[in-house]
Amino acid sequence: MKTLQGKVAIVSGSGRGIGQAIALKLAHAGASVVVNDIDGDVAQDCVRQIEQAGGAAVACQGDVTATEFADRFVGTAIKRFGGLDIIVNNAGYSWDSVIQKTTDEQWQAMMDIHATAPFRVLRAAAEHIRGAAKAEKDRGQVVQRKVVNVTSIAGLFGNAGQVGYSAGKAAVIGITQTLAKEWGRYAVNVNAVAFGYIRTRMTQAIGSGAETAVIGEREIRMGVQPEMIDFMNKMIPLGRGGTPEEAAGAVYLLCLPESDYISGQVVLASGGLVM
Fold first, then answer.
1. Tens digit of pLDDT for each residue in 110-155?
2. Using CA atoms, how far apart are residues 207 and 254, in angstroms rounded to an integer?
3. Alpha-carbon span 150 to 92, nearest angstrom
4. CB under 8 Å to 150, separation ≥6 — which residues?
5. Pairing relationship of beta strands 8-11 and 32-35 according to DSSP bridges
6. Which residues are catalytically annotated?
7. Where are the alpha helices (DSSP H) in the chain?
8. DSSP state of 198
């Protein structure tokens, strides 16, 4: 039997990059997956990949920072697949500046995507999780559920030029550790994965391809200076950045039954780099 057979997962920001790799990994392990992206075509493409491989998936297009999104996201899992077992809060991006150049708009955008959006998704899932756990207890069952929140080594150690991003990712850790305490009684493991340098469009070398992404009405510059990538590769004990598939593997570990007694933890997936 596949390790996640019968489970239902929602993965925010899963149309491309790390999120897509997570969705594909969970689906390959047997989970039914609700795929989300702000770009509906990208989300549908991920769904097609899952279905072509014999899995089950549905798209929930939308901006995770929209006030109505969280209820619709959680509701899609329950209506389409009959429940919710795994929540992966992955959606995010960076909008960088040193503090004196960081506008209120930039700061709030980082709080909205990295702190408020996961909070709303978890709040929207709370009633279902509490109700399901009570019904299972009445039947003498224990069903372990999983929450994996995506943070960053910047959220643990800070990073020059990323005051908003680092603060938002630090907030994710506070949410994780609080929910681990609140939801332990419902047999929910709540953990976080802190990524280091993972090779995605957000961290590609400037000048190597598309350098902007449209987020809502904003056009955000993507990419990292090539010399910074060289420096990171030299600093990482494994000698290289990670792939999206390797990043997905770290999330997958915290969704397995083997992690049923791990909760409130932040796991670094950084190739050994500790800033």
1. 999 999 999 999 999 999 999 999 999 999 999 999 999 999 999 9
2. 36
3. 9
4. 18, 88, 89, 90, 92, 172, 192, 193, 195, 251
5. parallel
6. 165
7. 17-28, 40-52, 69-81, 104-111, 117-138, 153-157, 163-183, 226-235, 244-253
8. B
Q: Name the burial class of residue 257, with classes exposed (0-12), middle (13-18) and buried (19+) by CB atoms within 10 angstroms of its CB.
A: exposed
pLDDT digits (tens, 9 = 90+) for 228-257: 777 777 889 999 899 999 999 999 999 999
What φ, ψ does residue 98 adopt, rounded to 5°?
Answer: -65, 160
Give the torsion sign (CA, 202, 207, 209, 215). positive
At a CB cut-off of 8 Å and minimum separation 6, what does 162 contact? 94, 96, 154
Count, residues in the chain = 275
Q: Are 189 and 144 in contact (CB under 8 A)?
A: yes
Pick the CATH number of 8-269 from 3.40.50.620, 3.40.50.720, 3.40.50.2300, 2.60.40.2700: 3.40.50.720
Alpha carbons within 13 A on the beta-carbon side of 180:
19
Find the angle CA(35)-CA(2)-CA(74) to the nearest 5 degrees.
30
